[in-house]
Design goal:
By secondary structure, the chain is of the alpha/beta class. It contains eight helices and 15 strands. The strands form three sheets. A ten-stranded mixed β-sheet has the order 6-7-8-9-11-10-12-15-13-14, with helices on both faces.
């Protein structure tokens, strides 16, 4: 467990128990020692103020002011492919959400970032989502998951702690890019990242085109991208969550985690333009080369390093999350003219997924620290 995970921020600070140095309040149900008669805001702790929790044997239940239920089986289990239960390919079972649902999920994420958890619960419900929290070492984790199984919509976990790293992992192609959801979850845990977002459908889970740029040989040679392809559709819960996360955590680097059949790893900043040797994509590429010196580590963004050759392999230039972060006017149909430095697109051979998750996580940390 990353050492950064500590006391929860899930309690509204205006209502926290003033316990001085004797108490660290957590958001789970675990109890913490207190001094009897310690003040709560203007008065002492009494039964009238703790009807949502309990004091028992000199301890306080830290869920007193926490409206979130503990996640069934824990927070991290909802990142597993069996719990996500994604829509399979060629079923035409995926349907895009309504605009109201997209707005509601964005509002829920904004409320979580601002620690307005009652509002977050209300917005999540309006989007047909369940909102719950972890406990124990995972007490700072908040989960947003679809309330209906096999809905095809994304699952999201946010770390609400003060010291969560400014890093967001996104896996838009579970099933097709096999094990990228497990890899993203592993990198999230190892790096202490802010959030991880995982799609709930195979990219070919719909027969209808998304209307965005790009083709997907995954769905047939030269086939247009589908509305179930979360890297190439903008009217999804996945993209709405991406937009909200990018806004709420404006300093975070977003990493799109993908898989490819070619050897090695190809990295890009979501463009094919040259970059500097000090850019995040260059530092990440070099860190990968250090860890995998015999593998084909290439970059779509030339920075003049012979150890990391320039090779335009699957550069993610039509990826709508990357286009958004790189300032494209309309991420669906407009290419980005330049890189913002906020997006990394990672394509990897299957041999890295998820077996080399720790090494890739460490390369990311080296690139951003």
């Amino acid at each position: 467990m990353s050492p950064h995970r500590g006391a929860s921020r899930l309690l509204d600070t205006s209502r926290r128990v003033a316990l001085g140095a004797l108490l660290v309040v957590g958001c789970g149900a675990k109890s913490t020692p207190i001094d009897a008669g310690t003040s709560h805001d203007a008065g002492t702790i009494d039964e009238a103020r703790i009807d949502a929790g309990r004091i028992d044997g000199g301890t306080i239940d830290a869920s007193i002011d926490d409206p979130l239920d503990v996640c069934e089986d824990g927070a991290r289990v909802w990142l597993e492919i069996e719990r996500i239960d994604p829509i399979a390919r060629d079923t035409d079972a995926y349907r895009p959400p309504s605009a109201a649902a997209r707005d509601a999920i964005a509002a829920a994420i904004t409320a979580i970032a601002e620690e307005r958890f009652e509002d977050a619960l209300s917005s999540a419900s309006a989007a047909s989502y369940v909102l719950c929290r972890g406990e124990g070492d995972d007490a700072t984790l908040v989960v947003l998951r679809p309330s209906a199984p096999s809905s095809g919509h994304a699952t999201l976990v946010i770390d609400t702690s003060d010291d969560a790293r400014a890093l967001i992992l996104e896996a838009p192609h579970p099933l097709w890019d096999a094990d990228t959801e497990a890899e993203s979850a592993a990198i999230f845990a190892r790096t202490g990242a802010r959030a991880v977002l995982i799609a709930g459908t195979h990219r070919c889970g719909s027969d209808r085109d998304s209307g965005c740029d790009g083709t997907a040989d995954a769905c047939g040679a030269g086939a247009a991208v589908r509305e179930s392809d979360m890297a190439h559709a903008t009217d999804s819960i996945f993209h709405a969550a991406h937009l909200a996360l990018a806004s709420a955590y404006a300093g975070a680097l977003v990493v799109g985690v993908h898989g490819m059949s070619e050897s090695g790893i190809s990295v890009s900043d979501g463009t094919s333009g040259d970059t500097t040797a000090t850019s995040t994509v260059a530092r990440f590429a070099r860190a990968l080369h250090t860890r995998f010196p015999t593998e084909s580590i290439t970059t779509c963004n030339d920075f003049g390093d012979p150890d990391v050759p320039h090779d335009a392999r699957l550069c993610g230039t039509t990826d709508v999350q990357g286009r958004h972060l790189n300032g494209a006017p309309d991420a669906c149909v407009d290419a980005a003219s330049a890189a913002s430095g906020r997006f990394l697109h990672v394509e990897q051979n299957g041999r890295f997924r998820p077996e080399e998750s720790d090494a890739i996580a460490d390369a990311l940390l080296e690139a951003i620290e």
